[in-house]
Amino acid sequence: MNLRKTGSAGQTEKSALVGAAFLTGASSIGPGFLVQTSLFTAQFGASMGAVVLCTILLDIAVKSNVWRVIGAAGIRGQDIANRLLPGLGHAVAVLVALGGLLFSVGNVGGAALGLNALAGLPLWAGYLVSSLLAILIFLSKNARAGIDAASKILSILVLAVLLVVAFLAKPPMGRVAEKLFLPDRPAELLFPMITLLGGASGGYISYSGAHRLIDSGFFGQENLGRIQKSVLLSSAITGLSRILIFLVAFGVCSGGGAAAAAISGAENPAGEAFRRAAGEFGYRMFGVALFSAGITTIIGSSYTSVSFLKTLHPVIEEQEKWFISGFIALSAAMMALLGNASSLLVAAGSVNGLILPVTMGVIFAASHSRRIVGETYRHPPALTAAGILVLLLTGYVGIRALPGLAAIFTY
């Protein structure tokens, strides 16, 4: 579909591309995103700058591969999988939805913790407020515009909070620059790098924006250049957030080993970093960031999970709003019953650790299948090489994640 840059068509194109970028970027900035970056920074100090840089580059590689192939094919990820091997897409859809549900439960808990830190709201009330807010966005008259607006506003709010607290934390930028290309213990940095990559690109996340473009009718080889710009905007949102969280945590940790130990040993490493960086004000700002991040990831995980399930039965697509609302309500109910997101987040990480290599393998195979991407499409060799690298790295993560799957059944 070729959307020309004139009149309402030009606005439709811009809305679709920017909306897809912010939906994916917002989906990446969840409670786990904040905690993981803070914890690893406390452990590795200035050398985490190199990890953040590598993660940003790999994130671009993952999303570029996924979005280009889906854009060229003009169909969703699970439909591509079904064309490669009948039934594979259904298995991928269920796997993605399971990982999305587990993350959505944890994100409801994260948003509630944010409201608790910000205003002292009881957790049960936070579950209710967070889930109802997300449901109202999807049930609004123009849900697509509501999703785009919420993703943009909340992402910008998170970035603004992180920027203020990073400035107050006063990280020693000279040490960051020194270790950016010559980090200490480089071999030990592989695990945090691939863990953070999974948090930025794993599971449903890489597909959220690509599926948003399909739903908007924006695809086709003639649009791949503009789709790539949307990928770069999405990765810029995720990358800038990661950089700022790293600077907040490193600014605190640079004060000495006691500060780093306090963050590493804290029940909430990100909250401790914010408190030490800017006192009570910093902790309140952490509440704002955590609540906003929780809402954006509830929206992203619910929307994308249901977009994968559309393949299973036509009624899911016909009643999409209600299925998404039910997905969010189920997440809130599970969070209220279980009362603790930590074990679910472990299970979610394990499931999503398995999803990325599977889906990347599907995308890599599809990128060279003319019956899927068309006779004239040629996948860039650089992206093929980057895709193979990511496939190997995420395959390693998936193997390591297998023991964690037991958490789903023993929680």
Structure description:
With 411 residues, the chain is mostly helical. It has a single domain (14-410), classed as Amino acid/polyamine transporter I (Up-down Bundle). Helices cover 82% and strands 0% of the residues. It has helices spanning 7-28, 31-44, 48-73, 77-84, 88-119, 123-139, 143-169, 173-180, 190-201, 205-215, 224-253, 257-265, 269-309, 314-318, 320-338, 342-366, 370-373, 381-401, 406-410. Helix 1 (7-28) packs across helix 7 (143-169). The chain is globular, with a radius of gyration of 20 Å. Mean pLDDT is 85; it is low at 1-8.
A few lines on this structure:
With 411 residues, this protein is mainly alpha-helical. It has helices at 7-28, 31-44, 48-73, 77-84, 88-119, 123-139, 143-169, 173-180, 190-201, 205-215, 224-253, 257-265, 269-309, 314-318, 320-338, 342-366, 370-373, 381-401, 406-410.
Shape: globular
Give helix % range: over 70%
Q: Mind telling me which CATH architecture this is?
A: Up-down Bundle
Radius of gyration, whole Å: 20 Å
Keywords:
411 residues, mainly alpha, Amino acid/polyamine transporter I, disordered N terminus
Write the layout of secondary structure elements.
Elements: H1 7-28, H2 31-44, H3 48-73, H4 77-84, H5 88-119, H6 123-139, H7 143-169, H8 173-180, H9 190-201, H10 205-215, H11 224-253, H12 257-265, H13 269-309, H14 314-318, H15 320-338, H16 342-366, H17 370-373, H18 381-401, H19 406-410
